[in-house]
Amino acid sequence: MKVAAILGPMQAGVAEKPDPRPKDDIAVVKIIAAPMCTEYYAFKKGDLGDCHGHEAVGEVVAVDKATRVKVGDRVIVQPQTACGECYVCQTGDFIHCWNNRDLLKETGSEAGRATMGQYILQAERWLTKIPEGMSYEHAGMALCGCGPTFGAMQLLKVDAFDTVLITGMGPVGLGGVINARYRGARVIGVESNPYRAALAKELGAEAIINPSDEDAIQQVLDLTNGIGADKSIDTSGTEAAKPFLMKTTRCKGGVAFVGWSGEVEVNSILGRGLSVYGAWHYNLNDAGRLLKMLSETGPQLDKLITHRFPLSKIQEAWEIQVSGNCGKVALYPWE
Ligand SMILES: [Zn+2]
Ligand SMILES: [Zn+2]
Fold this sequence. Notes:
The chain is α/β, with parallel strands linked by helices. It folds into two domains: 2-129 and 297-332, Medium-chain alcohol dehydrogenases, catalytic domain (Quinone Oxidoreductase, Chain A, domain 1, Alpha-Beta Complex); 148-278, NAD(P)-binding Rossmann-like Domain (Rossmann fold, 3-Layer(aba) Sandwich), CATH 3.40.50.720. The chain contains 13 helices and 15 strands. It has helices at 40-45, 87-90, 103-107, 136-139, 147-156, 171-182, 194-202, 216-223, 241-248, 266-272, 287-295, 298-304, 314-323, and strands at residues 2-8, 11-16, 26-36, 56-62, 74-77, 119-123, 127-129, 163-167, 186-190, 207-209, 229-234, 249-257, 275-278, 305-310, 328-332. The strands form three sheets. Strands 3, 4, 5, 6, 7, 14 and 15 form a seven-stranded mixed β-sheet that branches. The chain starts with a strand and ends with a strand. The chain binds zinc ion (ZN) (2 copies).
């Protein structure tokens, strides 16, 4: 099978790997689309390798003893392969499992853990069936496109009474705009890239504030009766976003962190009485609700996905991500 490979700094190509084999509860999925995420950091740096990506949707093409899925099923491939037994797995928060399985070792396959390739291995428990009538591309937004911010919205209990502030209008933050608008909330975004700021407005954000403006904090306060946003979500993963949110979220409001990295000062949480959440993914028991949301926001998802590339154009696909002038980018391993 063909997989995406990093050949040097800003240099990518396609590599050949042996096809993976199913075993026990582990199925082989033919990847139809792989939404691209943060792998471009490695492309930029030149971290050599040919196992990239954690987002995929596709068709089950081979099973051994799996009973929950069968050949021909259309599925969302959930990230990682949690143990399925521990308390977080049992309650749906599998993303926080500390006992991930080694599927290459279990199946004796040489490859099959990258989503940016033609086939992937996954335990059947972590394959979510795609509802009839939903396109693969829309279903793919149940991964990082709309998933982590959906998880944040659930934790923060976002509804129509809320003004939600989202820092970072990259693909994840843009998915946050779709999620918040679906729930009837008002959205203020923070973004400096004009392409992404314009896209966020198209998706329904009321105002986009440039974080380089000296009065950026005051602009949020002016839009929120001087008290700050009810709920806020960082998707930027930048250092600067954390103190910014601590000054622009109202007292007794909620903050969710989706973007990795950065530091938060305890006194700023205590002083405002904030509730703080870590939202890596979403609880799998809420997958039905997320899929319902995706089934009703198709036109917005079509705007969120701004670029599509065949695997042979992986170089161009990563280059556009490095430029920042894109929303979600989808890779097609069989085209
Ligand atoms: Zn577990
Ligand atoms: Zn991702």
